[in-house]
Design a protein that fits this description.
mainly alpha; 420 residues; 0% strand; globular; 87% helix
């Protein structure tokens, strides 16, 4: 997941070097849509992978294959939707997101191309999740990292030697999932895959089951895009384009950090789902404890790096050495990432619930994080404390939601004891 999120971080770095603050602003205005594409792919992949793993552990191979086929139907439907949006509504969307005449064309180009590559992003996410649940997590990781590193190399090639500008950055990003799928291909060529396409009619019940299990993954990804849209609007009012460029540094680093927690959550999903299918409660709880411990240790390490290295991190993306951008980004990094341990807990516990076919608490946690708490908090705190309030709204939200998640987990434990 770190590798996957580096798609965007590489764009941020090379765009900041090649196109300056305006390029960074254009990227940050267009990039929330990537969260919708990635989130849709993860929703289908994680939801389908969870159902597949449970059916496989119960030796119901026909149902497992129908789950895979249904996941591909869903991916195709979402791909058509995103491509149509890219063809006809790119300019309208970036205008709604606040692009002015200085950054409109760059934002529109980035958004349109990323939407036209949606089929590759969706199919790659689905295949990665199924291969991971098919007993080949190392190959899945290799494909993710291979695609990401190819994106970094192609970013440099297209932006600098080829001088392709913002199109080069997004074209490199679009090629990455294709390279990832090529790395996955030996799993199918050598016929190691235990999931196959099968003849089955599209069934609404199966679609709903996949989507229901995957919705928390969608909301986790999409929430970052929605938060970016809202924060962009608030920061444009408070600090203009330079403020949005500074937020671009924070937001794109946040994608990488949240992806670490998403990676831990995706790592436990096949184990927890298999244990759930076998009714092994002890293994489920043990796996969750390991995941939460890993998230907490990583959170402490991440925040130490961010706190002490905030100035250096901001400077990496500040190619024009803009003093205002440097000041805003440095302070923002230190305040924004206080959220790390709470965000890690929320992502892991949400996936734990969906992996054990308890989607309702996962949905509530995800929706609280993505919409119901963060947006009012951002507007309220920005009114009270200006731009510092914007940065503090993220940790405040994650703390509140973590308390809710803990209550759900303790309640579910008591219910399980009563049942036993």
């Amino acid at each position: 997941m770190i590798g996957l999120s580096c798609y965007i971080l590489a764009d941020t770095f090379f765009v900041s070097k090649g196109l300056g603050a305006n390029g960074l602003t254009a990227l940050n205005l267009a990039i929330p849509i990537y969260s919708f594409i990635s989130g849709s792919g993860l929703m289908i992949g994680m939801g389908g992978g969870t159902k597949y793993s449970i059916r496989k552990s119960q030796a119901d191979h026909k149902a497992a294959n129908r789950t895979f086929t249904s996941a591909l139907y869903l991916a195709a439907a979402f791909a058509v939707f995103f491509m149509l949006v890219g063809l006809f509504f790119s300019g309208t969307i970036v205008t709604l997101f606040g692009a002015d005449e200085n950054v409109f064309e760059m934002s529109r180009t980035y958004l349109q191309v990323i939407l036209l590559f949606a089929p590759a992003f969706l199919l790659n996410n689905v295949l990665l999740c199924f291969v991971r649940n098919d007993g080949a997590p190392q190959l899945s990781m290799a494909a993710m990292l291979g695609g990401s590193f190819s994106n970094i190399v192609l970013d440099w090639v297209f932006i600098f030697p080829c001088r392709m500008g913002i199109f080069g950055a997004v074209f490199a990003t679009g090629l990455a999932p294709i390279i990832s799928m090529i790395i996955l291909s030996p799993h199918f060529i050598r016929k190691k895959n235990q999931f196959h396409l099968t003849k089955c009619r599209p069934e609404l019940r199966r679609f709903c089951g996949i989507l229901s299990s995957g919705v928390p993954s969608l909301v986790t990804e999409v929430s970052s895009g929605i938060v970016m849209i809202a924060f962009n609007a608030i920061i444009l009012r408070l600090a203009g384009n330079v403020g949005v460029a500074a937020y671009g540094v924070i937001a794109n680093l946040s994608l990488v950090i949240i992806s670490i927690y998403t990676g831990i959550a995706q790592g436990i999903q096949p184990i927890v789902s298999r244990s759930y299918g076998l009714n092994d409660a002890g293994s489920m709880k043990s796996t969750l404890r390991y995941a939460l411990a890993a998230a907490l240790i990583l959170s402490a390490a991440i925040y130490a790096v961010v706190f002490f290295g905030a100035g250096q991190i901001a400077a990496i993306f500040n190619s024009e050495q803009n003093a205002m951008l440097q000041s805003i980004a440095t302070e923002g990094l230190r305040l924004y990432f206080i959220a790390c341990p709470f965000a890690g807990f929320n992502v892991v516990i949400s996936t734990y619930f969906t992996s054990t076919e308890r989607p309702r608490p996962a949905h509530i946690i995800s929706i609280l994080r993505g919409f119901l708490v963060i947006l009012p908090m951002a507007f309220l705190l920005s009114q009270l404390f200006s731009i510092r309030g914007v940065w503090c709204s993220f940790p405040a939200t994650e703390l509140i939601v973590a308390a809710v998640g803990l209550v759900f987990y303790l309640h579910s434990g008591k219910q399980a004891e009563k049942t036993a």
